[in-house]
Design goal:
It is a single chain. The chain is of the alpha/beta class. Helices cover 35% and strands 24% of the residues. It contains eleven helices and 16 strands. The strands form three sheets. The chain has a ten-stranded mixed sheet, sandwiched between helices. Strands 3-2-8-9 form a four-stranded mixed sheet. The chain has a two-stranded parallel sheet with strand order 5-7. It starts with a strand and ends in an 11-residue tail after the last strand.
Length: 321
């Protein structure tokens, strides 16, 4: 089977993660360890997609600094075609997360103004049009401002567009575009923000997005069940328990990348999502934003992922089925 080709558009930046060594004390100096890696929602996801057999090109924006050089080297090391724009007088975007001793996020800080300023213009580059002509699908994130997202969906011209929500503040940029998306990957706070349903039940939130045209989506919630909807189907998958929680950063991106590849190979969402869940658990067990996905480790984890189960209509956003 031919490897699916993906054009990734969105965040590729420095990802700093500081982890507290003991019990976190708000407002105090907490001992811990700071690590620096490369991240960005779409870059994490497309790295996982490549490790699951896809070929890929990436369009992002970065500065002409040492961090930008790190990003460029990381893209090349993954075998991803780099079509990004470099702004020599700008600083490369970054994301800093502070984690508790169990690996859960305490707070995050995003320094990403370059994305806001530069992405709309990237949609007009000839490289963008050429790359779209050569790809099977687009994978992007909501780090793109609203104008750029609208342009990208228009340029896709019917090719499937998979989107990572990124945050509650940014997912609302997709309002008005939902009917054009092949699948949207969200967490439970993000679907609440987009659907404007707050803490309503899963069925209510999904119903609100279906009415606005979204045909397919995935909703994550840490260690809790992953929810999927595809047309009229609403189902859940209970992820196997991680053997050791090292770092939750990038788990949702890993799920999006692996699920996207599986769908491009022809699997329906409820089956493709099992592969995404396997990748997410391996990400939680890794200290890297995009974990190694050896065929042996992946197959072993996939064997532990149960089949999807139908979700009852009254399920609450905070509940497992």
């Amino acid at each position: 089977m031919r490897s699916p080709s993906i054009l990734a558009v969105g965040g590729a930046h420095v990802d700093r993660r500081g982890q507290v060594s003991g019990v976190y004390v708000p407002g105090a100096s907490n001992p811990g360890i700071m690590r620096e890696d490369l991240g960005g929602g779409v870059f994490n996801a497309v790295r996982n997609a490549v490790r699951r057999g896809a070929t890929a090109a990436l369009i992002s924006v970065r500065g002409g600094d040492a961090a930008g050089d790190m990003v460029a080297r990381a893209i090349a090391a993954e075998g991803i075609e780099d079509l990004s724009a470099v702004f020599l007088d700008r600083t490369t975007p970054s994301y800093t997360a502070i984690l508790d001793q169990d690996g859960d996020v305490i707070t995050g800080f995003a320094d990403m103004m370059l994305y806001e300023l530069a992405f709309p213009k990237q949609m007009r580059r000839s490289k963008m049009r050429d790359a779209l002509d050569r790809t099977d699908a687009i994978l992007c994130d909501a780090n793109l401002p609203s104008e750029a997202l609208r342009s990208l969906v228009g340029l896709a011209a019917g090719k499937p567009v998979f989107v990572i929500a990124v945050s509650p503040a940014k997912v609302v940029r997709l309002d008005g575009l939902l009917s054009s998306l092949a699948c949207l990957f969200m967490n439970r706070r993000e679907i609440g923000a987009l659907a404007e349903t707050g803490e309503a039940g899963i069925a209510t939130s999904v119903g609100a997005l279906r009415e606005r045209g979204l045909c397919r989506g995935v909703i994550t919630a840490g260690e809790s069940a992953v929810i999927g909807f595809d047309g009229d189907e609403l189902f859940s998958i209970e992820p196997p328990k991680a053997r050791k929680v090292v770092d939750v950063t990038g788990a949702g991106d890993a799920l999006a990348g692996a699920t996207t590849v599986a769908m491009l190979r022809g699997l329906p969402l409820r089956q493709a999502l099992r592969e995404g869940v396997a990748a997410a658990v391996l990400a939680v067990e890794s200290d890297k934003s995009a974990p190694e996905l050896s065929p042996e480790d992946f197959a072993a984890m996939l064997s532990l992922v149960p089949q999807a189960e139908e979700l009852h209509e009254g399920a609450n956003i905070g509940d497992t089925p």
